[in-house]
Write a structure and sequence with these properties.
The protein has 96 residues and is mainly beta. The protein has strands at residues 2-8, 12-18, 32-41, 46-50, 66-68, 79-82, 92-94. Helices cover 0% and strands 41% of the residues. 24% of the residues are buried.
């Protein structure tokens, strides 16, 4: 199990600890707006987003409409996306 996220077709960012990104989708959903991996940055309390889904590709944050926090701990956190992971020079804050 890995910490993964997806952006669903309706624009919901979902988090979980699953084997496949597909496991974060609702029954009947066949596609999404990409996904990747996540981890906590304990130094600043943010959630780090990085990588891409093998099945669905890189996340398209322009499609983001809402964030479902229950897959992490139910508490909103600052989100930072690193598009060129493991290079942490380029950090993109995700703002809803």
């Amino acid at each position: 199990m890995s910490r993964k996220f997806v952006i669903t077709t309706d624009g919901t960012l979902k988090f979980g600890q699953v084997s496949l990104h597909r496991n974060l989708l609702e029954f009947g959903e066949e596609d999404c707006n990409g996904g990747g991996l996540w981890d906590f940055d304990k130094n600043n309390g943010a959630v780090i987003l990085f990588g891409r889904s093998f099945d669905f590709g890189a996340p398209d944050f322009s499609r983001l409409n809402r964030i479902e926090w229950k897959g992490i701990d139910g508490i909103p956190h600052e989100l930072i996306y690193y598009p060129f992971w493991p290079d942490r020079i380029t950090a993109v804050p995700i703002i809803l």
